[in-house]
């Protein structure tokens, strides 16, 4: 039972011991009925006063986590102190069907990522920690004057200053014309998707999404009872005609698209197709949800087609953006651009869910997006991502050419990899766990066995060769 | 058409004009079909270049908000540019039944509060802006080192440091023993209630709540399809026997209580009753949700009974706390203390809804609650609230003694007022709007006509006499 005591912490040592032992019981490291060190032994091991350990054990006992028997010692409690047969059975409350749990494969990967040491997490779709603009955000926190800001409840649609700034940035960076009243600030793109799935659609409604697509594994769609039909992703995006085709068989209520550096394929939909998709959706009266987290990451090399929303002069597109992939996912700032009546409805619902977003990330994000360093930061991230991509592609061409195929991405931070040989996906996942190199298996994205997604934005440059060698080993064992 | 141009703002002037005109069209101040100032006239009025106004009008036209006719001038567009008969009809998407809208009376009061000038908002249940610890929070933002912090996705249950700090604070301030693993950080108490109502209960489930109670007006309960039965609030809280009584007729699934400075009555449940309620709930296996936003505001005068949760040795109580009423509602930090299996389920659902809370308010809150200034701040707020209460009670005894009755509160920040004479509530509300003095009418809290709630935490000391005179006028006109 290895515990670490932080003597500089303000947290009392007895409480540090309580929390860590509870964690070990929860994780199963301390099994039910197993004998604990005696108070004296633990005090000696940790070099703390025996009375400190006595106090910890007292609290663990009163929490029902351990049992002490005179003469025979201290044991991890066998069951929880609550005897379910006599008391509230929480399981009956928890096992409802309203919210389905997160995809078990994703849960396992996240769990493994939390506990592994010295591994490579290429599954988690976020930037490497050193690409977050910590210094710039710290400088902003140093200069913001809080006394000028109302710290009371803020409008559920988001603070005006940030909506104004985004309005300008959408115009200059994305050619999207809108006004602040048509922007809703959300807790990342995730909350925008949650609100759309739960407030604008009804259980049983059919939605069309790209295939493959990250949306396949999103429990929000399943929890909201939506039915999913797929639009095949080709080299330059989905085939707009397929929407009309599907429409004949299904009463499609909404189309979810990620046209720029699509997750997971990295595909960019051509501008011709963007306009065609929009016109078809207008004619069939099916709104488009355009999820656009990656379009700022074009590596500075290529003129990207502007978002579908920029062509949308009839308000048929709900546009979702976010700072998660270009600033920091922990900021939790996303936005939805939508017709005013949609913004009003979703703001009211949002008031019921969480009473609006904290004022602090909103003022920090506003100061950042208004500043000159915002553009500089994005340019820097683009340079570093392109560099990572180049090293990665070189290593893969050298090591994996006989095993896999892939399209070299010109933006975003995913690599979509196809395996040449047949393989067993659960074996592949197991090998990835054994070797502490995590990636997202293809089945998460729909019926895409034989593929997997690597998020190279997470790799340190110096680790890339090492990681690709491990990957080779994993693939060879699983095929 | 009065527009204000901020020349020091980085926001281009043409965009300031666009946003303000759109706001005026949305608010109805600029009616459909009404003639706008010509470009030349508006440029002159605002002392801006005519080309700036031309650019604004171009954008407003492309957004479909105005129409320009050669020779006859510029007009506010009659309908939205989207012809609903030919395009997506958003109304059909918005009018689903999953989420009911906020109580219309509350909506109206909020709306009036946003637009009124020189009025007194005693409806909004939050602290006066000068009671927020702006300077202390600013000092924290100046000293936090962001480079040490992971700005990526943080655990959906909240960051470990804040959960550890709350664990200690719950022990020392509330006599609640728990471990960090049993704490979920939420976006205020609101999100904790949302998660409980939607993940632990099913549509049709019966919940028991205090009568009167703020929970009556909560659209989250109605949106979740819950049925509500009332437990009458007496001088020292509800009658525990009534739970058993109701249980014979209804299959009650949960009991929602706010035992300390209950909203709206200000009542404190006696410790005898707290223990009795807990034992009955254990025996009947009905969990209690204890909502406890006010217990830190005891004006330093009186030994308060500890929360029901502090007696809960069988994990039958879900305990909700928050910084909204003691630090700042705009921080959006609340917490739920619950059995570990409940925390796990709600964290997973929360991941689907918003991917967890922003890291920034969590680190700020953690630094604050750990600091010595936290206790000092709470003592200061208590002193100032007691002082406000004293001035208010003096003024009410002088002016309103013949019109109303009330119990002098010894904590919290609400005054629950009973009118002596019969009156018409909608007349009362109208008079309150006419006089720009807002309060919460009794009907919001269940069938409590003849009552209203004043939040005196919002009043400036020097305004109290003035406000009470207005209140007298309003009551006299409405009865």
The level of helicity of chain A is 40-55%
Domain module tally of chain A = 3
Strand order of the largest sheet of chain A: 4-11-10-9-8-5-6-7
CATH class of the largest domain in chain A: Alpha Beta
Average pLDDT number of chain A: 91
Strand content of chain A: 5-15%
Structural class of chain A: alpha/beta
Q: Low-confidence stretches of chain A at least 5 residues in length (pLDDT < 50)?
A: none
Greatest interface = A-B, 110 and 109 residues
What is the name of the CATH topology of the largest domain in chain A? Aspartate Aminotransferase, domain 2
Terminus-to-terminus distance of chain A: 39 Å
CATH architectural label of the largest domain in chain A: 3-Layer(aba) Sandwich
Write out the CATH superfamily name of the largest domain in chain A: Type I PLP-dependent aspartate aminotransferase-like (Major domain)
Using the alpha-carbon principal axes, give the shape of chain A. Answer: globular
Number of strands of chain A: 16
Helix/strand layout:
The structure is a homodimer of 479-residue chains.
Chain A: H1 13-27, H2 39-46, H3 50-62, E1 66-69, E2 73-76, H4 90-94, H5 104-115, E3 120-121, H6 134-143, H7 160-174, E4 183-186, H8 188-200, E5 206-211, H9 219-223, E6 227-234, E7 237-238, H10 240-249, E8 252-257, H11 271-284, E9 288-291, E10 317-322, E11 334-337, H12 340-354, H13 359-370, H14 372-399, E12 404-406, E13 414-419, H15 425-434, E14 437-438, E15 440-441, E16 451-455, H16 464-478
Parallel strand pairs in A: 3-14, 5-6, 5-8, 8-9, 9-10
Antiparallel strand pairs in A: 1-2, 4-11, 6-7, 10-11, 12-13, 13-16, 15-16
Helix pairs in contact in A: 1-3, 2-3, 7-13, 8-12, 10-11, 14-16, 15-16
